[in-house]
Amino acid sequence: MPQRFLQTVTWPCLLALLFVSSQTCAGDILVKVEGKQANGLLHLALIAADQPDWNGPILRQLQGDTGELRLSDVPPGRYAVQLFQDLDGDGALALSPRGVPREPVGFSTNPSLFKGKPQPAQCLFEHGSGDTQITVKLRSRR
User: Fold this and answer.
1) What letter would DSSP give residue 30?
2) What is the total count of domains within the chain?
3) Sign of CA dihedral 24, 123, 46, 138
4) pLDDT per residue as tens digits for the range 23-68
5) If you write DSSP's letter for every residue of 116-139 in order, what string do you get?
6) Residue 59 maps to which CATH number?
7) d(CA 33, CA 85)
8) Quick check: is 11 in a domain?
9) What residue numbers bound the domain in which 37 lies?
10) Tens digit of each residue's pLDDT (9 = 90 or more) over 70-92
11) I need a labelling partner for 107 at 20 to 30 A (CA). Which of 21, 33, 42, 129 fits?
């Protein structure tokens, strides 16, 4: 009798424990944008911060026209954000022949752009199981 009781109680408990432990705690990332101009859509790309450059796989993309963008249900990890404001409406970052952005750009942790585009490791931030808020300052050569 005790063995039968353990079998009927243990299996549902183990299944429930497996289900609960397989659920990762994912929070939102709220990106506040400073320096946004009146017109132009914002384009945001979220990547894993351990990538050597920005050409790797994009984990999430988001567009919006307000000063706040929200990435929902992002699992904990180390990330980097690249952001630009599309002033001419073509959906791509306008660059000069030398590769200098002609539209406002920004990165998480707001690194200096004096030496050019920063690496993702220079822009990394930690995102835990709760919500994370970061501020990105758009900079323009105009």
Assistant:
1) E
2) 1
3) positive
4) 558 899 999 999 999 889 999 999 999 999 998 899 999 999 888 9
5) SSPPGGGG-EEE-SS-EEEEEE-B
6) 2.60.40.10
7) 10
8) no
9) 25-137
10) 999 999 999 999 999 999 999 89
11) 129
